[in-house]
């Protein structure tokens, strides 16, 4: 028994806990990454259990909800999951338009989309436990807390897709993730638009502000790298007032949300019978924060490899996972992280508009070596 398991055993009395279930594959977190992994594993004929700490999958929404059109090639996106299609995004620096980039995509109803993916997994044969929080991963399996009651789930392969504070990442001994922080409001849009809007300003260090149209509504938000200064709430309030003054949005706030965005690049993604997917693995673009597409792709890869490992009885099969992920989306994530490092190292040293052009993918400079 490893030192971590000994510590857990002393703290929780693991040997005395009831065994809630046994499954070939246990997926922690029923977001897009987790549900995609669960479906892929179930399609291979192994038993799959998916855990989620929430009572209702998809809520609260912690996402700006913009995804590329290419997502539909990876997973079905039913019409009810789509709030609006957009043609691309307009980039502003110092509130002046500097680029218009065609990048067709969807603004999702993320709560509907996440619930659809989880229900799709259940239809594929996945057993779903909600209100089941993973507390730790040990040699014995996954320790979970269901409304104050501790129990164990035995697992052959464990896939962690529960975000930046992943207990699977802790079991792999990953260091804490570097995070940006975002806050978003949903408001009424005074005039419909087919284009998303991105705003860069020195008052939003290490991040940007956005307006993503949802027909008569819009998601309006700000993300900030706190290591460079600034306050998320202050930046959002200033951006909101600017849009109100310009007649773009109304004052009424319909919904407020927020969350953390991994910006430290990919982590160690696999160890023994454990794999990380999505935000838990750092599968996000460190500048834009885009993560849904790579999360779904990584989930499918992880689920398929879990099947191979279970069927062959060879845990070493899972070592293919990082390379397969890199082949599919590694350059996208890697370049985003490199540009984030460049942005931070030149913060306050380079003229702001030049810095944005070098680190934002609306401009040719972003793609230069």
Automatic annotation (TrEMBL):
SUPFAM superfamilies: FAD/NAD(P)-binding domain. Pfam families: FAD_oxidored, GGR_cat. InterPro entries: FAD/NAD-bd_sf, Geranylgeranyl_Rdtase_fam, Geranylgeranyl_reductase, GGR_cat. It comes from the Bacteria. Transmembrane segments: none annotated. Residues 186-259 form the Digeranylgeranylglycerophospholipid reductase catalytic domain. This is NAD(P)/FAD-dependent oxidoreductase. It comes from Desulfosporosinus nitroreducens.
């Amino acid at each position: 028994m490893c030192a971590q398991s000994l510590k857990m055993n002393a703290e929780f009395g693991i040997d005395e806990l009831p065994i809630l279930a046994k499954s070939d594959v246990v997926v922690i977190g029923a977001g897009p990454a987790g549900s995609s992994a669960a479906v892929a594993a179930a399609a291979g004929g192994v038993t799959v259990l998916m855990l989620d700490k929430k009572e209702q999958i998809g809520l609260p929404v912690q996402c700006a909800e913009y995804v590329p059109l290419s997502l539909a090639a990876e997973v079905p996106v039913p019409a009810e999951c789509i709030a609006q299609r957009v043609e691309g995004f307009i980039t502003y620096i110092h509130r002046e338009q500097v680029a218009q980039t065609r990048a067709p995509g969807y603004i999702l109803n993320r709560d509907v989309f996440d619930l659809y993916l989880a229900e799709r997994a259940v239809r594929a044969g996945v057993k779903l436990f909600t209100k089941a929080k993973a507390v730790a991963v040990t040699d014995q399996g996954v320790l979970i807390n269901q409304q104050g009651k501790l129990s164990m789930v035995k697992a052959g392969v464990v896939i962690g897709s529960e975000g930046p504070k992943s207990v699977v990442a802790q079991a792999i001994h990953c260091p804490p993730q570097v995070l940006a922080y975002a806050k978003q409001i949903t408001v009424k849009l005074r005039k419909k638009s087919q284009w998303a809007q991105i705003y860069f300003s020195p008052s939003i260090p290490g991040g940007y502000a956005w307006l993503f149209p949802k027909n008569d509504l819009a998601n309006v938000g700000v993300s900030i790298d706190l290591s460079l200064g600034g306050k998320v709430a202050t930046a959002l309030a200033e951006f909101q007032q600017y849009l109100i003054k310009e007649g773009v949005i109304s004052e009424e706030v319909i919904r407020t949300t927020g969350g953390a965005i991994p910006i430290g690049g990919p982590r160690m993604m696999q160890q023994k019978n454990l794999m990380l997917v999505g935000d838990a693995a750092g599968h996000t673009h460190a500048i834009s924060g885009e993560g849904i597409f790579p999360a779904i792709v990584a989930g499918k890869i992880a689920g398929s490899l879990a099947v191979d490992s279970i069927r062959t009885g060879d845990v070493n099969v899972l070592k293919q996972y990082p390379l397969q992920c890199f082949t599919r989306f590694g350059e996208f994530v890697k370049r985003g992280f490199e540009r984030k490092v460049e942005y931070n190292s030149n913060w306050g040293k380079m003229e702001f508009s030049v810095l944005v052009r070098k680190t934002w993918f609306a401009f040719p400079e972003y793609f230069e070596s």
